[in-house]
Amino acid sequence: MKEKHFSEKISSIGKTENKRKKTALRVGFPRSLLYYKFHVLWTVFFETLGAEVIVSPPTNKEIKDVSVKSAPDEDCYSTKLYFGHVLYLKDKVDYLFIPRFSSDHKTDISCPKFIGLAEVLRSMFPDLPPILMPYYSKAKDGHGNIRLIRIAFSLGFKFTRNPFRILHSFVKSFRRFKQYHDDLYISEDELRRWERNEFVFNKTISTTNKTNPFKIALVGHSYVINDSYSSLSIKEMLLAEKVEIITSEQLPRSVIEHQMSKLDFNMYFRYEREILGTVMHFLENETVDGILQLIVFSCGPDSIGGEMASRFSRRKQNVPLLQLTLDELTSESGVTTRLEAFLDLIERRKKLKENEIICP
Amino acid sequence: MPITFPHFGSLTYVFEVVLRELQRKDILFPKKPSKKTSELGSRHSPEFVCTPFKMTLGTFIEMLDEGATELGMGGGNAYCRFGYYWPVQKMILEDLGYDNFRYIMLDFLHPLRIWKVLKEESNGCSYLQTLRAFRIAWIKNRYTDLVDKMLYKYRALELEKGLSEKIANQAFRLVVETEGLRNIKKLEKKVIDLFEQNVPIREEKDPLKIVISGEIYVVLEPSLNVDVHRKLNELGVIVESTPTLRSFIDVGHKLNPFITMHHQIARKTAQPYLQHRCGGEAQENIGEMIIYKNKGWDGMVHLYPFTCMPEIITRSIAPQVSREHDMPILSLVVDEHTGEAGFQTRLEAFVDLLKRRKMETN
Asked: Has domain B3-132 been given CATH number 3.40.50?
């Protein structure tokens, strides 16, 4: 009897929730490009506002096929995938959230395609649901916190009439965003300890094992490294091979800024700084066994950053650098072969080094 | 210390003017980029960098072999990767074994910074003299643009083939060599007279008019765009190219509150389609389509280098603008493999289409 009552209660709760959800507006985030940088901020903000957040699934073959068919053929692979994600969400949401984000730094910007993407989509697919496209550019238009609050309110009033709720979700989302960054970036101290093999990120490696694992710096845009379909699950493959990985996302910002100050020009692409800074740091300190750079085909910033990285590594040849260019035609077996060859190379170099130490 | 700069269509004359006004005697004029230049450039360039990078790198390699030591190049945070041209090219040239050279970077988005760099690179000019030199350059840039405009009009209608080009060369030399601000201000009339008096044109009622827009380097450099302007002119079409360096360096018109520069109008017109500037000439080009449609032009050819980030945005939005404003557009991608015949066929087809449209509407 009691049990029945309990289950009824549960089902009634479910019903009210369903009712509430029906009225809640649905916001769609394509799981691509900037989503990988800002997902915490956006999700928390819209969920606290009372909207239902719908994120497209991780890239799969279906999405890829749609994107290759529908996207402009000269866009980079990641941008093409964005089209597929948007088209997946088309009929499932009331609003699409595609911010026109240019920069959050005084002088540094991000890819110009992020500014035009929302308008390109609106123009190419007129039947899309309304797109929320706030514009924010600190470098070019001098936007600051006031602009952010204005954006928050203009977005918020679409979902709620309560200004305090908007303010609350604004503050909460930024707090959580900061928290997320604190968790993501390792500190300089941690980096030093990691370089000294005092701990590992990869949980499958037993720390009791005396021989140190291979250490590889996985470098690339966060929307490539974390998207296992477009990066052909290189990250998972390496983890399964018991390789210790550090990604360019994790590196402390201070280390990257320190490396960038050594250049005689300003590297003004925000996310390319991260990539080049990581490569330069490990080329200089030689604390990893290899650097693996993932480049997306026809990515503008990568064409510059990749060239610089390869030229820096040619000048300082102690750490091998493997650059893999990915696009929709890249086959998994080709990548696997090259990755295996790269790991073999690292292994041999390591053995040679050990022999040198024993009998110099 | 011979100084050189990339070959940049009619702007080559403007660069020449600046350097002359700065009392530089050791100017090494860049060669016109040839097939060899582009091959040389693309051999040493990153795989999918945009074509102007490859072209300028090729030019610089050729000029370094001729003994240049100072390379003038644009730079600065320009939304796209243009600002990285010089650091990466520098690295490439260093790896190729050139060591006795240096880059002079002109941040074209900030005229004040240009002023400062020009002062440093001048042959002992003061700030005031440098400003004067810079001013003469931007004023003369107006007239080189005018010569271009006249040439693209007269070449389409000329009776004697090749005459207008000869006159254009004369006009360019006239613009470069005129001295004294008073004489320079008279140039506009002189240039127009030069064409009107010397080039006999055939009377044609309502000839086809096509506007050429796109990325500035590709539109202005004839050796890169396989001379689209001439090809269209030879088909009897009057053309006009819209991108100009004046939108960055013409401080005189920029500061003048009574003059609204053309690119500003274009940006404003493009607002409903592309609200914010995203580098290159993306926003301007979209505005240009609407402006020239309202002016009664027949079509637009949009040129951009392969993998150019901002222009892909234009290209993706252009079909919508074209549909809504009934303005035919032909987007052409240019890279080092571009063949003349392919372009010729497409341009001819486009012109035929426009002719038929015109006949139907009449």
From this structure: yes
